[in-house]
Design a protein that fits this description.
Elements: H1 2-26, H2 41-50, H3 63-81
Length: 83
């Protein structure tokens, strides 16, 4: 009876050891590819600091004022997308 219990315990121990070794071998390399460039958070923050919203309610602005605000914001974002 004790022989069977000992054999089962040894088999479980060998199985656990084999799984641990296989896991360690699988984790050697990086599962994700290398990132070629940074994600652009620094550039995005720089552009966000340059951009500004017009003061007051947008509905109260005339077409000329809102158009100039949009053009200014577009120029700022164009500088961001060129990087």
């Amino acid at each position: 009876m004790w022989k069977w219990i000992l054999r089962i315990v040894i088999a479980i121990a060998v199985l656990v050891l084999a799984l641990k070794i296989a896991d360690r071998l699988a984790r050697r390399g990086s599962p994700l590819p290398a990132i070629p460039q940074a994600n652009g958070c620094d550039t995005l923050l720089t552009v966000a600091h340059k951009a500004s919203a017009p003061q007051g309610d947008l509905a109260d602005l005339g077409a000329e004022a809102s158009g100039s605000s949009v053009k200014r914001t577009e120029k700022i974002w164009e500088g961001c997308t060129r990087h």
